[in-house]
Amino acid sequence: MDYRSYIAEKLKIDGLTVEEKAEAVVVPPDLSMGDYALPCFRFAKVMRKSPVAIAEELKAAFLPDDVITSVEAVNGYLNFRVNKAGLAAETLGRIFSEREKYGSSDIGKGKTVCIDYSSINIAKPFHIGHLSTTVLGGALYRIFGFLGYNAVGINHLGDYGTQFGKLIYAYKAWGSREGVEKGGVKELTRLYVKYHEYAEEHPEADDEARRYFKLIEDGDRECNDLFTWFKELTLKEVGKIYDELGIKFDSYAGESFYNDKMQPVIDELEEKGLLKESDGAKIVDLEEYGMPPCLILRSDGASLYATRDLAAACYRKEHYDFYKCLYVVAYQQNLHFRQIFKVLELMGKPWAKDLVHVAYGMVSLLDENGNQVAMSTRHGTVVLLEDVLKKCHEKAYEIIESKNPDLEDKKEVARTVGTGAVVFAALSNSKIKDIAFSYDKILNFDGETGPYVQYTAARIKSVLRKAGKRKAYTVAEINDDEYALISLLADFPDTVKAAAEKTEPFYITRYAINLASAFNKFYFDCKIIGSEESVKNFRLAISEATLTVIENALRLLGISAPERM
Ligand code: ARG
Fold first, then answer.
1. β-pair partners for 325
2. Domain range annotation of the chain
3. What's the pLDDT score for residue 435?
4. Which of the listed residues 260, 305, 316, 354 has the most CB atoms within 10 Å of its CB?
């Protein structure tokens, strides 16, 4: 039963569709007022009446029934109460029949959503700054997939530019095959830093580097072999982290993939009279739209990041015929995406409106004293994601060791908990907010953390193990704790949809925290094992359903729940 739609059907508001009315129905934070509510403020303008009058009027026209048992008008709100036993029976029944599919839907059927995320740069270390795009994108990928969309994960690799000429220069001057094989990306970074130090004194090196880059572009065998090697090496290293975080891609078409796909776009810009000459460079003037020009070709004829993004957008539309194309990229690139989207619009692409920049804030790490750990790529002081994960595994191990020293597979559990803590933390706030996290905070088993949710899941598993096989349940009396839990369970499908619509996986982390706290309150207030048979069976059913939903929520975030912890 979809209560929102049910209520919407019965609400008499002129000029609104059922969907619009359903969208206006909310779950109040405090269930003592009602199970669902309709804030009438939003209709005041159109209906030219006060919210209080609107609420009174709507109440008079709303006849309660078996499903919605009462309706009240209070201070401009309409509060509904549902038949609790009905809601409980329905919700539990649905969870037990749909299991790991509960919360999924087919609203996305036939629609493709491209998600450009993680999009790392070749030969650069994978640091904490890449965490958000990777886990946000990964979560959106799963959420859209869960809703029936055809989700396409794209890692738009940064694998093009003169820096690769510099790297080849540095490798030839100071590197060796064994050195790179052994040191991996760290060694490549060292070579790159070394190049910059050298080039300060010897600017002529830049000409050489440019020549090497040109050789890559012209298909020179040796340069391309080196470049391919650096690329494979980077992907192999980052692949380990992707595996750890449960991240997948359908395409690794990076910037260089568009080398031969830019010319048609440039031609089209020219044909449509959008290209302007400026100091020898080619630009699209965006002054009219309050933006600096979008640079398409440099005066030496070289293409830019923006040129490749234009080609990529056109290619994706043609190749995937997307319904939406999301770019999960830091807010620092706001202007870049506004420019790209505008240029495509000016080119007359009707689908330009379907491109979405999913911008997010900065992530930083706090040390033991609460000070931000400084990061600078140039000085080589980056916080590697690999190190953050490792540290979290160690800390999780210490905590488990002190709480539950006899636990089996402590190492494995510590891994799941440590990684879960990092992922959960990165998705714990509205994406646009900057986050600064400390190990102690994200690993706090009692805080609003991944481990807290995992711990709750393990607690439920333990209850279910102790209880043995569950008998059939019936729904009779329902107390407040039980109801609070059930109404949250009923709300999961809408939460998933809202997370997709607003591209906010944080709706799901927040939901998981609320669900875990509601369960813990229920667990402390209501005896399960040892209660009268019928009560016990009902409470076990609620517990089992809660576990299913917690696991579904965590799975969407890319987190698993250990059996015991
Ligand atoms: N590699 C880029 C960076 O690190 C991000 C690419 C984002 N995707 C895109 N289509 N521009 O800044």
1. 114, 355
2. 3-82, 161-240
3. 87
4. 316
